[in-house]
Amino acid sequence: MPHTAALLVIDMQNALVDIAHRATETVAAIAGLSERARAAGLPVVTVRQRDGELVPGTEGWRVVAELTPREGEPVVDKTTPDSFLDTGLDGILRALGVTEVIVTGFATEICVDTTARQALSRGYDLVFVADGHTTSRRGEADGDDLVPADRSIRQYNTIYRTIGWPGRRIRVRVAADVDVTA
């Protein structure tokens, strides 16, 4: 079976990017990777969260301008952290002959991690883009007990460098080092 990759851009919507840690840098990394993927003929699949705060058609729900899907590209709407659950994502990827997903987006610990693990469980190889995922800005000043954003991002990059998944290839790469020709 030939190796075919697809780039997933998860929840890079205006309202979420507004609260994202290192938003400008993350959007730029994903945008550059998206352009290289398109130039190489790889599918770019945009995933959007829909819920009580992210209402379809509103400005906050829209994907940030730099990452707006191109005409004819697949767009998947979801209502849970799992981009595969009750969506057409798996069917889209299988119809395209995809064997590996390149995962980017928001938020590291929730939708990005859940989707990455579900992709592995569904038989896809994984490229976890080290500088292409982010989480919310936070800190003790905000009164929360969450791990600081930089540390959380590093932690998930480390997890995906060390996690074992029998029969799957898992790689962590910065966006500039992701091979879109394979």
Automatic annotation (TrEMBL):
Record keywords, A-Z: Hydrolase
Source species: Streptomyces viridiviolaceus
UniProt-listed Pfam families: Isochorismatase
CDD domains in the cross-refs: nicotinamidase_related
GO molecular function ontology, one term from the record: hydrolase activity
Alphabetical list of InterPro entries matching this protein: Isochorismatase-like_dom (IPR000868), Isochorismatase-like_hydrls (IPR050272), Isochorismatase-like_sf (IPR036380)
EC number from the UniProt entry: 3.-.-.-
Xref: Gene3D superfamilies: Isochorismatase-like
Annotated protein name in UniProt: Cysteine hydrolase family protein
Highest taxon, organism lineage: Bacteria
All copies of domain Isochorismatase-like, residue ranges: 5-137
Enzyme class (EC, first level): hydrolase
